Amino acid sequence: MGAEAAYRKAIELSPEPDFHAYNNLGALLAGDQSRCAHALEVFDEALQHFSDAELLHANRAVLLEEAGRLEEAAASYLRCVEINGKNDQAVLNHAMLLEELGRLDKAAEAYARCLEINPGNEEALRHLTRLHEQRGDDRAVIRHLSAWRRSNG
Fold it and tell me: Which fold has domain 1-84?
């Protein structure tokens, strides 16, 4: 019996929903580009049982982003942040999608939130600085760069 069949059997036979079987099956399917839609179905089904599972929301967000479903991906990353407000990577991913969707004010807020959680997050700083430069907000650029320098010694 292969891994996929074993995970499906575990899901089918388990008297209680099996988080690991769902997550591992979704990850296994996601590894095959042609089966990403099936992986999304697995994560969606898992979330019916484990609605507060940050990892399931994060895995779902990645697949949605890869599928070009950016609004839904952004919502999934936001759900990760709602579950775990200290997840700077989820905040960063959410911010980058907001920026890609053209919601620059919201993106800037999310990048700033990411830097509140992790002042050393260089990617968030780079994106936020670029947004402020595009707007001609030199004071904000200086403020963020100074804060980053202070946090990184």
Answer: 1.25.40
Domain boundaries, the chain: 1-84, 104-153
68 φ/ψ angles, rounded to the nearest 5 degrees: 80, 10
| Amino acid letter, 61 | A
Q: Which amino acid is at 139?
A: R
Q: With a cut of 70, which residues of the chain have pLDDT below it?
A: 1, 137-138, 140-153
Give just the sign of the alpha carbon dihedral 132, 80, 41, 28: positive
Give CA–CA dist 59/23, Å, rounded.
9
C-alpha span between 26 and 46 (Å, rounded): 9
Which contiguous run of DSSP H or E holds residue 147? helix 138-151
Q: Name 120's Cβ contacts closer than 8 Å, sequence gap at least 6.
A: 148, 151, 152
Quickly count: other Cβ atoms within 10 Å of residue 43's Cβ.
Answer: 28
The pTM assigned to this predicted structure is 0.86
Element (H, E) at 70: helix 70-83
How far lies 143's CA from each of 15, 63, 72, 123, in Å?
55, 35, 33, 16
